[in-house]
Every structure is written in structure tokens, then in C-alpha cells.
Design brief:
The protein is of the alpha+beta class. The chain is built from 3 helices and 9 strands, in the order ααβββββββββα. A hairpin with a 7-residue loop joins β3 and β4. The radius of gyration is 15 Å and the shape is globular. The two termini are 26 Å apart.
Length: 158
């Protein structure tokens, strides 16, 4: 699935490798721009329980709601669906000589993790993400002065 840039709030972000290296930590660059993976059970958000939104650490596009998060026991934060299917790109990945499906941010095309078909209902999907590729935005910080969610693009209630 490839998102049309019209579907992405703020449009696509295209930077050079040098610009990404200035913007990201070395670990984030390794995971998000080189397709690496953090060690299982080492990420900040694996056991995170707060209510809120998980956004792309490189561009802040809201990607996953805490309401879709579940404990997969794999050592990485896992979700059964993204906030909006147009906010992620799914791409076949044969790096380990088996077919996997890589998940990329649709705005900046940063590597986030992989999606598997062994998740819970209602989708049966497990979006297995790297914590370092995500920034958590607590529910109370998303509320604007008029009480509406700052990420109004989300169709998932918190």
C-alpha cells in the first residue's frame, strides 16, 4: 500500500541522509533510515500502559492509538491496526530470506517495524514496532483548549 501525498497531513517529508543524521539519534537513524531493529524487551514502549497516541519519531505523524496496543509477548510494542491505513506504507521485505512485510511511515518513509498475521481480533494483525521509531503523546497533552483532539485525523477514540 502506498499513500498518496494528499492523504498525509503536512505532505511528504524528503531529507538527505545528512539531514536525517542531524535530526535523529544514532539509534533512531540505524532503525528508521537503515532498517535496523532494536533488541527485544529493550524499548521504552514495550510495556507502556498510558493512554495516548504513538507518533513517528522522525516526523510526528500520528500512527497508532494506545487503544489498539496489546501485549504480544514479543518484546516490541504491538498494535492491531494503525490510526489511519494511509499513514503507513506496507512493503515486502526479504532481508532475512523469508517474506516479511515492512511498515514505513507514509510521511517520511522511515522504517517502523513489521506487520504479521498473528495478531488478535478484530484485525488478526500484529504491527510489531520499534520503540525508538515512536514518540508517545499522552492523551492529556493532545487536548486543545476547546476539548478536541489535537490529532483530529484519528478515527480511534482514546
Amino acid at each position: 500500500m502506498v499513500a498518496d501525498s494528499n492523504d498525509i497531513p503536512g505532505g511528504k517529508i524528503i531529507l538527505t541522509n545528512a539531514e536525517w543524521k542531524k535530526r535523529l539519534t544514532p539509534e533512531q537513524y540505524y532503525v528508521m533510515r537503515e532498517g535496523g531493529t532494536e533488541r527485544a524487551f529493550s524499548g521504552k514502549y514495550d510495556d507502556w500502559k498510558e493512554k495516548g497516541i504513538y507518533a513517528c519519531a522522525a516526523c510526528e505523524l500520528p500512527l497508532f492509538s494506545s487503544d489498539a496496543k496489546f501485549d504480544s509477548g514479543t518484546g516490541w510494542p504491538s498494535f492491531w491496526e494503525p490510526i489511519n491505513p494511509h499513514y503507513v506504507i506496507l512493503r515486502d521485505d526479504y532481508l532475512l530470506f523469508i517474506k516479511r512485510v515492512e511498515v514505513l511511515c507514509a510521511r517520511c518513509e522511515s522504517h517502523l517495524g513489521h506487520v504479521f498475521d498473528d495478531g488478535p481480533p478484530p484485525t488478526g494483525k500484529r504491527y510489531c514496532m520499534n520503540s525508538v521509531a515512536l514518540n508517545f503523546i499522552p492523551k492529556n497533552r493532545m487536548e486543545s483548549s476547546n476539548g478536541e483532539s489535537a490529532s483530529a485525523s484519528s478515527s480511534t477514540d482514546l
